[in-house]
Amino acid sequence: MPLVNMSELLEEAKNGGYAVGSFSVANMEMVQGVLRAVEETQSPAIIQIAEVRLNHSPLELIGPLMVAAAENSEMPVAVHFDHGKTEEKIRQALDIGFSSVMFDGSHLPFEENVKMSSKIRRIAEEYGADTECEIGCVGGSEDGSEDIAINCSNPEEAVQICKKAKIQALAVAIGNAHGNYKKEPKLRFDILEKIANSVDVPLVLHGGTGISEADFKKCISLGISKINIATATFDSVERAVRTAYESGKIKGYYDLQTAETEGAYLNALKHIEIFGCAGKAYPDEF
Ligand code: 13P
């Protein structure tokens, strides 16, 4: 089964009333754990890595591994470059074979964000790849190093950026934040609903870690088609390793690898079920 484009997965999800999980990965064990859950549940999925993570997982090493894993999967899997900040790294991801990229211009003045998102979309198009951009500002930073304030998306800007930049996915800020929430998130479903009613482009929810099952389902019912999960995967891997050590299951390196894979698997499995995308792979159609 091939590596697929994100847009085909998101269009199916939008029409089918479910969301595709976009799982951040940092090493081979995490890739294997996520894809095990994907195969078992017969789901479409996206595996992703953000630019801020590259100090720990260099793109030239993890990128080809992600692409090869998607190509070898029985399920439709897209490979996504998350929170691209620089054209250089976005081009590198595209050269490696990523099937989509995000340009994160959420910190830029709106017109600048539109201009750069449009430029990246044209570059990605040359590779046959898709582009996601973001308006407003999702709180926190992807690697937890910054405490960025939440600034909700403006529905009028959503219309403008979709029209002008012609991107294939739009990340919205509706009170969501990266990392573990300090207090229970209060999502602005009213803003999400307004945006969903104004644009046709599939919408993306970042900061999936710590959002309740009920809120995930409400977001999906209001038009979210892609949900990013990072911290929950890292936490689940760490927890699985710690538990395995504490219960004496780790006798050597291979047991450590098994525990890591298991942690990523369990977390992906849980979210795939909540997002309603289990059984939605339709492998014969891809
Ligand atoms: P979390 O770390 O909160 O799951 O956010 C993931 C994310 O949005 C990656 O882009």
Q: Got a strand count? A: 8
Q: From the 3D coordinates, which CATH architecture would you assign?
A: Alpha-Beta Barrel
Hetero groups in this structure are:
1,3-dihydroxyacetonephosphate
In spatial order, strands of the major sheet run 1-2-3-4-5-6-7-8
| Large-scale geometry | globular
Uncertain segments: none
Give the mean pLDDT. 95
Question: Which fold name corresponds to the CATH topology?
Answer: TIM Barrel
Query: How many DSSP helices?
Result: 10
Specify the biggest β-sheet: 8 strands, parallel, barrel
User: SS-based structural class?
Assistant: alpha/beta
User: Which homologous superfamily in CATH is the superfamily?
Assistant: Aldolase class I
The N- to C-terminal Cα distance equals 8 Å
SSE string: HEHEHEHEHEHEHEHEHH
How many structural domains? Answer: 1
| Assembly classification | single chain
Please write the CATH class name.
Answer: Alpha Beta
Please explain how this structure is put together:
There is one protein chain. By secondary structure, the protein is of the alpha/beta class. It has one domain (6-285): Aldolase class I (TIM Barrel), CATH 3.20.20. 48% of the residues lie in helices and 14% in strands. It is built from 10 helices and 8 strands. Strands 1-2-3-4-5-6-7-8 form an 8-stranded parallel beta barrel, surrounded by 8 helices. Helix 8 (213-222) links the parallel strand 7 (203-205) and strand 8 (224-229). Helix 5 (110-126) packs parallel to helix 6, helix 6 (155-165) packs parallel to helix 7 (189-198) and helix 9 (231-246) packs across helix 10 (253-275). 1,3-dihydroxyacetonephosphate is lined by residues 24, 50, 82-83, 142, 178-179, 206-209, 228-232. 1,3-dihydroxyacetonephosphate binds at residues 24, 50, 82-83, 142, 178-179, 206-209, 228-232.
